[in-house]
Amino acid sequence: MAFRQVARRPAVFAVDWGRRFIVLPWTDGKTEEIARFLVSTGTQSFAELAECADGTLESARHYVTRAREYMAGNPDAALGYVASALVYDTTADRLVGVCLCCGPSVYCIEVHPDYQRQGVATRMLQRALTVCAEHGIGTLDLWCNDDSVAVPLYEKLGFELTGDVE
Q1: DSSP assigned state of 36
Q2: pLDDT by residue (tens digit) across 121-153?
Q3: Which of 49, 54, 77, 132 is the Cys-Cys partner for 137 at CB 3.0 to 4.6 Å?
Q4: Domain locations along the chain
Q5: Are 50 and 3 in contact (CB under 8 A)?
Q6: Phi-psi bin for 162: left (phi > 0), alpha (psi -120 to 50), beta?
Q7: How far is the C-alpha of 54 from the C-alpha of 57, rounded, in Å?
Q8: Which of 140, 116, 145, 124 is nearest to 50 (CA)?
Q9: Looking at residue 4, what is its pLDDT?
Q10: Once rounded to an integer, what is the mean pLDDT over residues 61-83?
């Protein structure tokens, strides 16, 4: 199993969240909420990250904080925060999806298991692609494992292997 970079040219999508969901950008005060969300999902993708393997809230906080620290020195920081998405289910009043972008790169994308296969991840990526397109960014990239359940989604959205492998 390899960890590979995939990328695509941004494009503008008509992203419709309907009445059930609201989307907010990533902001300073959301670290704790995002960390709690990542731990609550219990999903394998979060646990596979080396720094989060223990599945603790402290590891999740470190993971989100590390991204924010990286963004502090990034000239595309503002773009990353706007392209990121925190998706809330208004009927359940809860965070159900997170897409964190560091500039024109997806740092983390996670959907709560109760909301998977409902188009949340697709719309989060379409939103990120739209923001990047509107800001004249040439490429949006992300990294994934070969055996990730998300690979078909990335392919459906037009992401292609760049050749970079870790």
Answers
A1: H
A2: 999 999 999 999 999 999 999 988 877 788 889
A3: 132
A4: 3-29+77-165
A5: no
A6: alpha
A7: 9
A8: 145
A9: 84
A10: 86
How large is the greatest C-alpha to C-alpha distance in the chain, in angstroms?
42
Q: What superfamily would CATH give domain 3-29+77-165?
A: Gcn5-related N-acetyltransferase (GNAT) (3.40.630.30)
Asked if 8 contacts 133 with a C-beta cutoff of 8 angstroms, the reply is no
Per cent of the chain over pLDDT 70 is 92
Structure confidence at residue 16 as a pLDDT band (50, 70, 90): very high
Distance between CA atoms of residues 11 and 157, nearest Å: 10
Q: What backbone phi and psi angles, to 5 degrees, belong to 162?
A: -90, -20
∠ CA 30-36-42, nearest 5°, is 140
Q: Which residues contact 77 (CB under 8 A, 6 or more apart)?
A: 71, 103
